[in-house]
Amino acid sequence: MERKIRVLIAKPGLDGHDRGALIIAQALRDHGMEVIYTGLRQSPAQIAQAAIQEDVDVVGLSSLSGGHKTLFPKVVEALKEKDAEDIPVIGGGVIPDEDIAYLLEQGVQKIFTPGTPTTETVDFIKSCVSGDSNE
Amino acid sequence: MTERFNEQLNEWKKQVEKTNERFPERKEQFVNKSDIEIDPLYFPKEDQVDEEYSEKIGFPGQYPYTRGIQPSMYRNRFWTMRQYAGFGSAEETNKRFRYLLEQGQTGLSVAFDLPTQIGYDSDDSMSEGEVGKVGVAIDSLEDMETLLKGIPLDQVSTSMTINAPASVLLCMYIAVAEKQGVPKEKVTGTIQNDILKEYIARGTYIYPPKPSMRLITNIFEYCANEVPKFNTISISGYHIREAGSTAVQEVAFTLANGMAYVDAAIESGLEVDQFAPRLAFFFNAHNNFFEEAAKFRAARRIWAKMMKEKYKAQNEKSWRLRFHTQTGGSTLTAQQPDNNIVRVALQALSAVLGGTQSLHTNSRDEALALPTEESARIALRTQQIIAHESGVADTVDPLAGSYYVEQMTDEIEKEVMAYIDRIEEMGGAVQAVEEGYMQREIHQAAYETQKKIESQEEVIVGMNEFKIEEEVHEDLLRVDEQLEQNQVKQVQNVRDQRNQPQVDEQLNKLKEAAQKSHENLMPYILDCVKSYATVGEICHVLRDEFGEYTGM
Amino acid sequence: MDQLAERIDNQDQRALARAITMIENDHPNKLSLLSDLNQRKKGAHYIGITGSPGAGKSSLVDHFITLLREQNKKVAVIAVDPTSPFSGGALLGDRVRMHKHFTDENVFIRSMATRGSLGGLARATKDAIRACDAYGFDYIIVETVGVGQSELDIMKVADTTAVILTPNSGDILQVFKAGIMEIADLFILNKADLPGVRKLKNQLKDLIHISGHHGHEPQIVETTSAAKPTGFDELHEAFKHHWQYLQQSEAGMQKRKEQLRHEVYELMQEALYKDLHKTIENTPQMKEKIDQVEDPYQLAQTWLSEWRGLSKGESNGKRN
């Protein structure tokens, strides 16, 4: 059976800069993954619902507006509310080092800061997926 | 052959004289440290002159403006040093503005938070986590009054980075000025008001393209009659470049958008010379020094030709591409952030040598967070060093005549025109945006750049080469998390205290006017604003009528 | 496995999503799951919507969902986009335009990539529709790009196939050439506020006559997806009209039967192909021959007659 990795790339909050999100989406696609892009201005509830319906292996969030401290944990929470806390959440964008520990504590699996090569993100997602059996 | 050249030269001398009468040169005599005198302008000797020089390069202040839009440029006055600022509450931002004015800044530039930019009040559920984060939160006229408190609006020009709700914020500005006793005719400044690049690159759109274009032409028309000194649009390549475009794409898509606004205004019944002199542009400056300087020169030449030949504008002011420049945010690295000071200096220099009218220099820590006061000061000092110490402003367009720069200017023009022709074939910029053409081109360029950086084909100092282990950066500006709650309370207070029936009446009138496509909405919006209707309430009325754009 | 089917029956979206993943990944237990699901199907109306990129499919589907939700209908959407032939990955962005329905518990949106291997796309889509039907949606909408063979194939599972055309796009000739005229049950002229819509409609009428539809003459509906969308009530009526035709007329019922017949063949074909592929790849003598084949006709003929002899022998053996 052929197993494809599926990833949801979402932009929570109102920030409209999607360059980073689109670059990562394309890089993941070029590494053979199926990437579902949900567009701008998504609420945590919208993201969680999309993640479930699309049965993704990982949710990737991008934020450049400084709203990450509120919004990323809310996505984790929204997944939990829908009994989908097993879907790992990762994030990227303009995120100061000092916020990273907080976000990890709140259940975000990993934060990628500006300048991270896309291959690092690809490898991380692959490692997330190989650890889980998917029935 | 030299006849035309001599005519141009004589004309230029007259222009300089006239300018100097109004604004005397900054110094009585320009000399360098070796005591060599600096001429206002250097140009070919008579025996080196050819037709191409007169045709393509010419003299500053003359068509096609390759060398600049004024005859003696910075010999008289430096560019406007305009630092974009705004965060948190109106009160805090007001303090920062006053500080910057005291530090010698010559114009204000307001950054709004995302809820304001997308037309949501601070207490809207969509605003959660975003209030006051990337700029100041403005909900009602009350916030605008606080923001501009103690700032004389007849003396300071204000640039507002606002697009989809530009009409609302402009009306608030006018209302505050009137309260200060400054009539509409006297206020000066710029609203960004460039919706097309929002669909292409920046993402803070509200309505679909057609009604958005109507709002923009409404503003053109209203201001032509009522607020004649206000720049009604700042057609922006900045964000297109930030989204990952090349320099050529930046200019091409920006000018194509500019043409779309001109077309829309003409279609709505305006004469080109009625609004074209109030069009302003906004470009980016990245690291490739000569490419950037040539880009600005090419952009000016293309626009001048376009306005004169295609749109048959008669007023010379309509031909002149005036632009603001901001250094490239996306070129800054989170690693070794102090290196960014050097990048900013190079970028700023290219903008000055490219003939910018105003300039924002980024702060070193912008890849990490909003700038601290110290970083913002260094950024401003960078401009001041270029202006006062480097001497580059002592003669006009010193790069002219360089084989490299002139040829690069020509090449960029050619490539830009190829894009513009392509977009025209598609039916113009609005059509191209709706089809996602520019978005795709930019994204492709961005992705190629990313791959080059990852393969180290492109070196970014401190990021993919010359790396060091770094400490966590401590002294970053944090926006107080309490602020959101305060702002929410404040807007609710305003709602409690205002005359609600009056608000409802004004909003209802706006709704009815929106349904009639020939009606100019500006006076209605001004009435709403004066009754303390909020940005969110006004935008919701228009959302109901115009619909919302959902992205590509 | 039964448990998953039961969870879907109980309207568990996570289970439905997981089942579709199993279908896409060709999980070993796929057929038994599908058989379970098939027994639980509720009789949704399957709608296929196709049209070229830029025709406004996603916006149209978005508005149509809004209308169906106003009437309290449950809706599933399966949006199919191509897989990159180079990397095997895909960028699926059709949800973007439907985001206002994301938190509506009665709207289920699933993006599928064509994956492109061995004609499996159409199969997986059909199976995904069945899974949605077991959940109990009233409408299941499949949205595909373009007019390729695999899209044509997907349309064969739809009860009603709608083709979107827009003025001045030249789509209509593509559609004609690709043989879509014959399978379309309904034409949607989207962006009908643009000039050129009259001309398009006349062209279309001519082409419908040339194509010679048997049974149900396709209706033509005009829609616009602007701030205040128009034509969607008419569109809904047209879908209902076609649905009644399927339920009540002889020809309509025949169409459904034909689809089911076709599906048996298709399932068998897929399974047999896989068996054959496995046998060849795992039998060293055969593998060696196929890897070094020079005359494909000869090798295929040799193997075919061996296989035919074998199956004849088997049936002979049974008779004895």
UniProtKB/TrEMBL annotation, chain A:
Its cofactor is adenosylcob(III)alamin. InterPro entries: Acid_CoA_mut_C (IPR006159), Cobalamin-bd (IPR006158), Cobalamin-bd_sf (IPR036724). Residues 4-135 form the B12-binding domain. GO terms for molecular function: methylmalonyl-CoA mutase activity. Its EC number is 5.4.99.2. Gene3D superfamilies: Cobalamin-binding domain. This is Methylmalonyl-CoA mutase C-terminal domain/subunit. It comes from Alkalibacillus filiformis.
Automatic annotation (TrEMBL), chain B:
It comes from the Bacteria. Signal peptide: none annotated. It holds the Pfam family MM_CoA_mutase. Keywords: Isomerase. The keyword NAD does not apply. GO terms for molecular function: methylmalonyl-CoA mutase activity. PANTHER family: METHYLMALONYL-COA MUTASE, LARGE SUBUNIT, METHYLMALONYL-COA MUTASE, MITOCHONDRIAL-RELATED. This is Methylmalonyl-CoA mutase N-terminal domain/subunit. Its EC number is 5.4.99.2. Residues 33-548 form the Methylmalonyl-CoA mutase alpha/beta chain catalytic domain.
TrEMBL record, chain C:
GO terms for molecular function: kinase activity. InterPro entries: GTPase/Isobutyryl-CoA_mutase (IPR052040), GTPase_ArgK (IPR005129), P-loop_NTPase (IPR027417). The keyword Cytoplasm does not apply. Its EC number is 2.7.-.-. It holds the Pfam family MeaB. Keywords: Chaperone, GTP-binding, Hydrolase, Kinase, Nucleotide-binding, Transferase. The keyword Signal does not apply. Gene3D superfamilies: 1.20.5.170, P-loop containing nucleotide triphosphate hydrolases. Coiled coil: none annotated. Belongs to the SIMIBI class G3E GTPase family. ArgK/MeaB subfamily. This is LAO/AO transport system kinase. It comes from Alkalibacillus filiformis.
